[in-house]
Amino acid sequence: xxxxxxxxxxxxxxxxxxxxxxxxxxxxxxxxxxxxxxxxxxxxxxxxxxxxxxxxxxxxxxxxxxxxxxxxxxxxxxxxxxxxxxxxxxxxxxxxxxxxxxxxxxxxxxxxxxxxxxxxxxxxxxxxxxxxxxxxxxxxxxxxxxxxxxxxxxxxxxxxxxxxxxxxxxxxxxxxxxxxxxxxxxxxxxxxxxxxxxxxxxxxxxxxxxxxxxxxxxx
Length: 219
What we know:
By secondary structure, the chain is mainly α.
């Protein structure tokens, strides 16, 4: 309990920022529901809940002082499976075209606020996992592995957005998921849209990562 209290105190500023961002997103959504009398964007609440899971995992791992490498590896894989859910919210911008033109600006504000909250959680969790990985596996090249993880996230977002896979289907439906992944990997020309999206979205996330990383280092 004392460890959790210390962690919250040390991350108070960061947690406050996350809470403010999420609170604004929820309020904007509630205003949108009231004015439009539509619950269309309510799915964003579920999406942001999924986005919080990887950050919750890194917060939990920060409270564990003597975790062995095997247990850390298990939590790392769970974290990696859920991590794409955070930047995934950016792709919810495609739903704006369905919205009411009268309140189009409000639709943009709602979805964008959730997307930015998702990106904030994504980068915070990624930076936390960097420190944890360096602690347990000192010989791993952190920056190279981070870039690879971001690439995997870009691919994960593609699987979620266009093939409609969920994180838990790694367990519940692995055969079909693995089959589709192999199809994309070994038939790149027939699946050029998957590769283009993965590279483009990953590039977007990498640029954001370096911006956040350099901003943190300068403060």
